[in-house]
Amino acid sequence: GKEGVRRAPGGREGRGGLGGAGPAPTPRSAGNYRTQLWDKQSESFLPSTPGLGMHVEVKDPDGKVVLSRQYGSEGRFTFTSHTPGEHQICLHSNSTRMALFAGGKLRVHLDIQVGEHTNNYPEIAAKDKLTELQLRARQLLDQVEQIQKEQNYQRYREERFRMTSESTNQRVLWWSIAQTIILILTGIWQMRHLKSFFEAKKLV
Amino acid sequence: QVITGGHYDVDCRLEDPDGIVLYKEMKKQYDSFTFTASRNGTYKFCFSNEFSTFTHKTVYFDFQVGEDPPLFPSENRVTALTQMESACVSIHEALKSVIDYQTHFRLREAQGRSRAEDLNSRVAYWSIGEAIILLFVSIGQVFLLKSFFSDKRTTTTRVGS
Q: What is the ipTM of this complex?
C-alpha cells in the first residue's frame, strides 16, 4: 500500500505543546482525509473508492502508539497529546486486491488541524449562545492559551537542554581523565615490558 | 524549512494546474513564497532530495490559504465593525503573528538540537575509535621492537655456529 508520514518538529504536530505544569487542557488534533484511486482506463482519478480501507496510526514522541484504527476510504480521526514533541502520523492502505502496485496510484487528500484550529467557532457560538463580542473574546483567549502552551514547551526544552549540557560536561571530564590514565598506564607498561625484555636479552 | 539531515538543504518546485512552474529553487535551506492563484485547479509542489547520497531530510512546510474562515456564517455582516470588534480583530492579527514567530523559533530549536545530536554521536564514535587505536598502537609498538631484537639474535647465533 501507499504510505504517508508527516512528522512535524516540536509541539504537537507543529503547534504549541504541553509544558507539564498547570491545569492546561490537553491539546487535541484532528485530521481528515479522502482517497482517490487512479483508473488506467479513463486515465484519471476515480471520484471515490468504495471498499478501500486506510489504516491510521499515530505515535507520540516516545514512540508509543496513540491511535491505531482502520477507517474507510475517507474518514476523520482525532487524537489528544500528552507529551510535547514530534508526533508521527502514518496512513497506509490495507488493500491488496486493488491495483496499487505495477503503476497504480493513489491520491490522498489530507487536512490536519491542530489545537485551536480544531475549534469550530460558529458551532461554539450556537452551542454556548455567545454574542459576537463574546465569541471574538473567546477566540482571542484560545489564541493566548496556545501561545502560553508554546512558551511552556520552550521552557521545558530549555530545561532538557540544560540537563543534556551538564551530562555532556560530566562525560567529557570523565573521558579525558580516563584517557589520560590509560595513556600513562600504557606508557608504564611499555617501559617495564621492554626493560625486562632487554634485561633478559642481556643488552642492558 | 529543512530541520534535519546533511547540509540542511532541499530542492523545491511549485507548479500550477497548467504545469507552469511558479517557483523553483535548488538546494535551499529555508524559503517563503507567496502567490495569488490565477485559476482553479490542483497546484503541485515537490520537495526533492535526489542530489543527496545517503542523508535523509526532514522538511517543515506550512500553507496559508486565503483568509480565515469567518467567525459567523453571517448574513448580517453589512454593518461596520464597532470599535470593540475592530480592536478584537487587530489583537487577533497580532496574536497570529506572535504564533508565527513562535513556530519559527520552535523550528530553529529543533534544527539546533538535531545538529547537536549529530555532533554528539560523531564525537562519541571518534573517541571510542581513538582509544582503541591508541591501545593497539602501543601494544603493537612493543611487539614490533621486540621482533627487531629477536631477529638480530637468531642471525648472530647462526653466524656463530
A: 0.71
